[in-house]
Amino acid sequence: EVQLVESGGGLVQPGGSLRLSCAASGFIFSDRYMDWVRQAPGKGLEWVGRIRNSANSYTTEYAASVKGRFTILRDDSRNSVYLQMSSLKTEDTAVYFCARSTSNWDDMLENWGQGTLVTVSS
Amino acid sequence: DIQMTQSPSAMSASVGDRVTITCRASQAIDNYLTWFQQKPGKVPKRLIYAASSLQSGVPSRFSGGGSGTEFTLTISSLQPEDFATYYCLQHHSYPLTFGGGTKVEIK
Question: pLDDT at position A104, please?
Fold first, then answer.
């Protein structure tokens, strides 16, 4: 069974940093692209970014709203993906989900974790 | 960026109704479109990928269609468990972008 479990959310002050983790199991993690998606309270879904697999040099893509502030990393030996967030703003308050995708352009975001809440507030 | 416009943003329907939700892309995206269902407090669930392929385990009353710039999600006979918010996602080019969502409520 595919499982994705996020952790690391919490309350952080504006301008602060936080690192989210997503632990994966039940599939060959190293083959997959991994995405982060967020949802502000009462709002819709927003794609945050992606990290590709080793075959694609672990390259990354980001939404404009987080580019330069957020970094996606992965550790295939730990079956984990991370979202390093810095210079946090109040508008980054959201539930953050990790999701698994493939390298096929027509097969994205098949499975999601339960999400972890990040609150940016003073 | 490609903008995804969903319509309607909300709707009321009765059990047994046929429901159609539309998603329009600001430019052609071939068939690189996915539909998700999200119930309150729950994780989004993939229903349809590649515009018209039914995700394994999803009831056959759900279907997707379209290509290019206009896409539809159809529920042939609405069931009580289908009351939820539905989102489309384009993955033709970066950044990936979601539609604003369609909330399907009980009439």
Answer: 87
